[in-house]
């Protein structure tokens, strides 16, 4: 199947129709290129706050709740488009109301209208210390018509045990937003490491450009990328597709899930099935004095 990952700029929106038109233009372009799975970035939904005015969008706390109030409406737009264009869509994540504080929530939307919900597991410092966004639901493995799909939102992709929890997935989507290029590389290295360890495809999307109306986001750097295990039948670099840094648009890559299965079964290395070899050897290392 063909995967499309977005390098997505945020806009100041003046109407619901403008938002719908924007998302439809993106979906139509990717579907027209033959993509079956479309991955939008982390916190891409923050542009919805501008529909309540720049005063709300520019206030961190008010913007969180403003987006939360509009997520169901955004999901309905994505449901319509997924059905119309026959694609699976990872909608841009955003704050969603929970018991006490918002969670950072991505949604996987299928052509038949089903919605799978995945919340971020581990908060970055700014999410925890400034936004007071909290961890949400457990990790999910979504069994879809395309294959088994999981989602690790940005920072989550930097944790091997979270990737291991999705070891049955054929594709792990990594929606991200990073202000510095160092942040982009942290997430990208994590995404490539998870592809290596679990011998799967990872699809990373990014927010790009300025959102100076937002106290939460500011300027973001990134690019779309699709990664794989550097093993037989895949590129030696572990890169299936990569866009141009900070250039808005889709990055496409063909992902052969039969080849994923082949590498897992009989690759040059077998990281996924040899994972257990670490157990018992991962205790605190012995301290050996050599001086």
Rg is 19 Å
CATH superfamily: Carbon-nitrogen hydrolase
Uncertain segments are none
Identify the CATH class. Answer: Alpha Beta
Describe this structure in words.
By secondary structure, the chain is of the alpha/beta class. The protein has one domain: 4-Layer Sandwich (Nitrilase/N-carbamoyl-D-aminoacid amidohydrolase). Helices cover 30% and strands 26% of the residues. It has seven helices and 13 strands. Strands 1, 2, 3, 4, 5, 6, 7, 8, 9, 10, 11, 12 and 13 form a 13-stranded mixed beta sheet that branches. Helix 1 crosses helix 3. The radius of gyration is 19 Å and the shape is globular. The mean pLDDT is 96.
Write the layout of secondary structure elements.
Layout: E1 2-9, H1 16-32, E2 35-39, H2 54-57, H3 60-85, E3 88-96, E4 103-109, E5 115-119, H4 125-131, E6 142-144, E7 147-151, H5 160-165, E8 171-176, H6 181-198, E9 201-211, E10 218-220, E11 225-227, E12 239-242, E13 249-254, H7 257-266
Parallel strand pairs: 1-2, 1-9, 2-3, 7-8, 8-9
Antiparallel strand pairs: 1-13, 3-4, 4-5, 6-7, 9-10, 9-11, 11-12
Helix pairs in contact: 1-3
List keywords for this structure.
Nitrilase/N-carbamoyl-D-aminoacid amidohydrolase, 30% helix, 291 residues, alpha/beta, 7 helices, 13-stranded mixed sheet
Condensed summary:
With 291 residues, this protein is of the alpha/beta class. The chain is built from 7 helices and 13 strands.
